[in-house]
């Protein structure tokens, strides 16, 4: 038997909306019996048509034995399960229906529409006939159903009264229902029947013996719901009501009974919530019927006055409404947007979010608009006027206009006929003092065609809270709110009283966002494909594209929502760094996609195939959660990430001040951080004083007995050997600068760092090249990580944290400062910056892992260290080691969390290398003089344009960087020997030698 839990029940609308005279309606007398051993229904249909007409008689898969019309055999070809009759009179059909249990096994479960079962079954365990089990035709009918059942079986169908007769071998049932129906249903089984009366209603329960103990619970809850709804809506329209357990996983409501699946009835939340939903359908759906031509409003009002009402009674109404908005934004993609007037029935998550969710919100907004008393008065008036007939959205509008005395055409027009929802932006929020009164002002922008809205607000001040409602109806609406006291923040729609789009700060990463995305990928490791095989199969059928880890490209990550199988996946590490391996069982975690705020990334992990398979289909029922844990197929933990409640606008930032008389010295700071494993010192690259501070910290640590290693951003990892060779004395300083390509790759004046490097060389302190080669960084900045070759990918970290939103915003500000550069794509630029910082963090982690007794001092640009989000937090993630951050000088605001210490060194004039005063260019492997600065030392010495450099003081010039290497240690006033080649007409180049005084 198929397992299914009904999350949102559906109402089978069994009655017509047309108040026809019962004398003009057909009369359908149906007599059925059963051959249980062969799963066979044997039946005779006797149908009286009192009026002329042509009718299509639908027989489906039924086996027709005989047909007569007005006593004459009717020979008709039954084609595609249908034949026609013309005229009035009596149609008699003898038929059989074969409904075997094996048929159910072949049915594919609709994971987006659980609880809807269209199959029938006849077995020794029970009978369930809910569709296509008798010849049918369009329209309303007066029914007379007689059923012969095997002994021990009890039957339920639509009925106000039931006559039962018993024999030794069978039971006979005659069902009497005095109102016309569009269709009927029949359920039977070896039930335990319980019965009691409540407020004039005969309440029955029919459970299989093993679930008989549930009878008291369901009966008590049913009485509670009938008391509630009779107070709100008026008297229950029928004499009896039955709660019936079904062997199929259904969740249906018919006139006088509800049919709940065998697995479902055991769930504790079903009598607490879903049962009330089904009972409420006795008023809306089975008493007042829906006019489907103008849209199904039934599910909206039923969801609002059941599921929502129960949460509201517990004080959790706003959470329920926020979930409605989350579901809508997750599932209703642009291709699935439809107006409420076009909603007919639930077919998937998107249609449910519209019909049930948006429908419920419309009635919530309507109640807030007209007031609670008027709201229920209008509903009672609608029920009285439209009982046993169809009602449309137009009828609802008229009922509420009548009760409220207001014209509500604008309300129903925008909420029922439009397929979009409001989306609000808040801009230019500020506090001004107008005529001595603090005033909060801001602008509300509607992104779509303007709605007319009542927008609740709350201003939080140092004295308390001020609440009110803003009337919004323009695309741009400027708001001013006078305030008594200092305003701290303003919150709009805190309780989610509006059907609207959520802002990014309100919209949590939940499973629904993954399931509802139109572009979604499931990524699996090849070596664990068998473990996750069923999960891959189920999600692939639901629209996921399955890809092996090695097939995933950057565009997949950026443009899709992802389900990554295994917490060890390299794709996951690429986005979030190392994630902790979940506990035993099955775990699923949903996070924001760091490369695309509109997407999510989920990862699932399990220790066995046996833990995966029981939850593969269950996951679709847990859309509102960000974290799920299962053990043995049972859910043991579920959480939704907490984000802002309402649209929150901060209005106050404290002004920070520093008392200059309470400065602490660098020596005191070093004493504070001396035991940290890593000390990060941020610099302004061209500020010599910053480098003097760095050297002082290193010297102090060494003096205090620390075993120090220096990590430098200025050197790239492929050139570590050049650093090592120089520090060991194997090569000269100039050879080191050439081998490390310092002037080509870092470009800043070497003398700014020379003292640090010379001190390290003299004291035997290792220096670690932290940075990635710039060719890779530039390539990623231009084309993203996908632009790298397989060989280049081996050079970059395999795990990276891309999920720091504050870091992302700071990088974006840097990007915007360079908007005229060749780098046009922020996402690629962002990836390159993460790669830069991650490489340095991995370089630090690698060294400290191999050398546990060292303390590392990291020298890098302040932007890589401020707020700890560049290198420090990434290093801590990789090593677990403690650190401190020292920021040398700041340009801009002083934020309280910018670093552990901010240093303010006095400016110091840096040592600079002298210049020749020439402009050089590389041409065919030679370094030529492109131009000379007027009055430069080179010009005075006799060097001319187009001369080719050969050497400076014996240092061979092979690149422009060689000129910098040759001069870096020279002093002003010192004379150098420059050899050049000069072209001669029709003769070979002549080598010339000049003495240039710097």
Concise synopsis of the structure shown:
Helix content is 29%, strand content 29%. Strand 45 and strand 46 form a beta hairpin.
- DSSP, total strands: 48
Assign the CATH superfamily of the largest domain: tricorn interacting facor f3 domain
Q: Bin the helical content.
A: 25-40%
Q: State the major sheet.
A: 8 strands, mixed
Low-confidence stretches: 1-20, 103-108
CATH architecture of the largest domain: Sandwich
Tally of DSSP helical segments: 27
Structural class by sheet pairing and helices = alpha/beta
Q: Tell me what portion of residues adopts beta-strand conformation.
A: 25-35%
List the helices and strands and how they pair.
Elements: E1 10-11, E2 27-35, E3 40-49, E4 54-58, E5 63-69, E6 72-73, E7 82-86, E8 89-98, H1 102-105, E9 121-123, E10 126-129, E11 142-150, E12 154-156, E13 161-166, E14 170-176, E15 186-189, E16 192-198, E17 201-207, H2 214-233, E18 240-246, E19 251-254, E20 257-261, H3 269-280, E21 289-290, H4 298-313, H5 317-331, H6 349-370, H7 372-386, E22 390-391, H8 393-404, H9 409-417, E23 424-434, E24 437-446, E25 453-461, E26 464-472, E27 476-482, E28 487-492, H10 511-516, E29 520-524, H11 533-541, E30 545-548, H12 554-559, E31 561-565, H13 570-576, E32 586-592, E33 600-606, H14 609-612, E34 627-631, E35 634-639, E36 647-650, H15 666-673, E37 678-683, H16 688-703, E38 708-716, H17 720-728, H18 733-739, H19 742-745, H20 751-763, E39 767-771, H21 774-783, H22 790-793, H23 805-817, H24 826-850, E40 855-861, H25 872-879, E41 883-888, E42 901-903, E43 918-923, E44 926-932, H26 937-941, E45 948-952, E46 955-956, H27 960-967, E47 975-984, E48 987-997
Parallel strand pairs: 1-19, 2-11, 17-18, 18-20, 21-22, 29-30, 29-31, 31-33, 37-40, 37-41, 38-39, 38-40, 41-42
Antiparallel strand pairs: 2-3, 3-8, 4-7, 5-6, 5-8, 9-10, 10-15, 11-14, 12-15, 13-14, 16-17, 19-20, 23-24, 24-27, 25-26, 25-28, 28-36, 32-33, 32-34, 34-35, 43-44, 45-46, 45-47, 47-48
């Amino acid at each position: 038997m198929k397992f299914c839990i009904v999350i949102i029940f559906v109402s089978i609308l069994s009655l017509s909306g047309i108040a026809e005279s019962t004398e003009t309606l057909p009369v359908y007398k149906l007599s059925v019996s059963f051959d249980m051993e062969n799963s066979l229904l044997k039946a005779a249909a006797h149908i009286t048509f009192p009026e002329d007409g042509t009718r299509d008689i639908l027989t489906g898969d039924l086996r027709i034995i005989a047909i007569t019309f007005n006593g004459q055999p009717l020979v008709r070809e039954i084609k595609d399960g249908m034949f026609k009759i013309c005229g009035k009179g009596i149609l008699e059909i003898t038929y059989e229906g074969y409904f075997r249990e094996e048929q159910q096994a072949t049915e594919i479960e609709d994971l987006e529409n659980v609880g809807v079962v269209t199959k029938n079954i006849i077995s020794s365990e029970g009978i369930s006939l809910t569709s296509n089990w008798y010849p049918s035709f369009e329209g309303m009918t007066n029914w007379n159903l007689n059923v012969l059942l095997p002994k021990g079986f009890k039957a339920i169908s639509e009925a106000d009264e039931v006559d039962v007769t018993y024999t030794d071998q069978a039971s006979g049932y005659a069902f009497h229902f005095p109102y016309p129906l569009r269709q009927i249903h029949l359920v039977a089984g070896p039930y335990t029947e319980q019965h009691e009366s409540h407020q004039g209603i005969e309440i029955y329960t029919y459970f299989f013996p093993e679930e008989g103990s549930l009878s008291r619970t369901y009966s008590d809850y049913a009485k509670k719901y009938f008391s509630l709804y009779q107070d709100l809506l008026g008297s229950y329209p029928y004499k009896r009501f039955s709660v019936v357990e079904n062997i199929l996983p259904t969740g249906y409501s018919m006139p006088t009974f509800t049919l709940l699946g065998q697995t479902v009835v055991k769930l504790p939340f079903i009598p607490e919530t879903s049962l009330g939903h089904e009972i409420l359908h006795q008023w809306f759906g089975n008493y007042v019927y829906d006019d489907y031509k103008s849209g199904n409003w039934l599910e909206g009002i039923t969801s609002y006055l059941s599921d929502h009402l129960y949460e509201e009674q517990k004080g959790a109404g706003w959470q329920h409404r926020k979930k409605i908005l989350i579901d809508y934004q997750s599932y209703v993609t642009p291709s699935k947007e439809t107006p409420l007037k076009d909603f007919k029935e639930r077919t998937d998550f998107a249609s449910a979010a519209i019909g049930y969710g948006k429908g419920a919100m419309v009635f919530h907004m309507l109640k807030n608009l007209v007031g609670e008393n008027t709201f229920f008065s209008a509903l009672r008036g609608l029920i009285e006027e439209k009982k046993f007939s169809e009602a449309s959205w137009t009828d609802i509008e008229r009922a509420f206009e009548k009760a409220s005395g207001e014209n509500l055409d604008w309300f129903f027009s925008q909420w029922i006929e439009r397929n979009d929802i409001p989306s609000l932006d808040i801009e230019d929020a500020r506090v001004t003092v107008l005529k001595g009164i603090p005033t909060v002002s801001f602008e509300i922008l509607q992104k779509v065609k303007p709605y007319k809205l009542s927008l609740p607000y709350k201003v939080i001040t140092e004295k308390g809270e001020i609440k009110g409602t803003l009337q919004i109806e323009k695309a741009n609406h400027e708001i001013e709110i006078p305030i008594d006291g200092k305003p701290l923040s303003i919150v709009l729609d805190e309780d989610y009283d509006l059907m609207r789009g959520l802002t990014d700060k309100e919209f949590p990463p939940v499973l629904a966002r993954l399931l509802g995305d139109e572009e979604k990928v499931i990524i699996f490791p090849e070596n664990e494909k068998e473990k996750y095989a069923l999960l891959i199969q189920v999600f692939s059928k639901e629209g996921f594209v399955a890809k092996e880890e090695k097939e995933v490209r950057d565009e997949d990550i950026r443009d899709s929502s992802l389900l990554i199988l295994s917490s060890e996946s390299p794709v996951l590490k690429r986005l979030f760094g190392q994630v902790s391996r979940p506990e035993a069982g099955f775990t699923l975690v949903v996070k924001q996609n760091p490369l695309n705020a509109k997407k999510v990334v989920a990862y699932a992990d399990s220790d066995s195939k046996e833990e995966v398979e029981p939850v593969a289909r269950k996951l679709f029922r847990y859309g509102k959660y960000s974290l799920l844990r299962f053990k043995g197929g049972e859910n043991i933990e579920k959480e939704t990430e907490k984000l802002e409640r309402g649209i929150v606008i901060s209005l106050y930032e404290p002004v920070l001040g520093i008392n200059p008389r309470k400065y602490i010295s660098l020596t005191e700071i070093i004493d504070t951080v001396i035991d940290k494993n890593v000390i990060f010192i941020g610099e302004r690259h061209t500020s010599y004083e910053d480098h003097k501070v760095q050297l002082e910290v290193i010297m102090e640590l060494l003096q205090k007995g620390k075993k120090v290693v220096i990590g430098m951003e200025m050197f790239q990892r492929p050139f570590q050997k050049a650093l090592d060779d120089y520090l060991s004395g194997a090569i000269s300083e100039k050879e080191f600068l050439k081998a490390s390509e310092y002037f080509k790759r870092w470009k800043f004046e070497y003398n700014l760092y020379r003292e640090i490097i010379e001190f390290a060389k003299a004291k035997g302190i290792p220096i670690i090249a932290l940075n990635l080669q710039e060719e890779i960084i530039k390539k990623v900045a231009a084309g993203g990580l996908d632009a790298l070759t397989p060989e280049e990918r081996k050079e970059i970290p395999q795990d990276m944290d891309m999920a720091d939103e504050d870091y992302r915003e700071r990088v974006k500000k840097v990007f915007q400062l360079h908007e005229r550069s060749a780098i046009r794509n922020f996402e690629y630029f962002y990836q390159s910056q993460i790669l830069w910082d991650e490489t340095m963090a991995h370089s630090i982690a690698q060294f400290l892992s191999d050398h546990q007794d060292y303390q590392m001092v990291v020298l890098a640009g302040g932007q890589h260290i401020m707020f700890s989000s560049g290198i420090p937090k990434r290093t801590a993630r990789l090593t677990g080691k403690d650190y401190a951050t020292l920021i040398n000088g700041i340009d801009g605001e002083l934020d309280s969390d910018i670093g552990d210490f901010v240093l303010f060194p006095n400016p110091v004039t840096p040592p600079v290398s002298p210049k020749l005063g020439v402009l050089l260019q590389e041409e065919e492997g030679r370094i030529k003089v492109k131009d000379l600065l007027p009055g430069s030392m080179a010009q005075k010495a006799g060097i001319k344009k187009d001369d080719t450099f050969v050497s400076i003081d014996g240092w061979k010039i092979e690149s422009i960087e060689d000129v910098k290497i040759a001069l870096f240690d020279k002093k002003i006033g010192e004379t150098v020997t420059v050899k050049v080649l000069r072209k001669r007409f029709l003769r070979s180049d002549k080598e010339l030698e000049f003495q240039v005084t710097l």
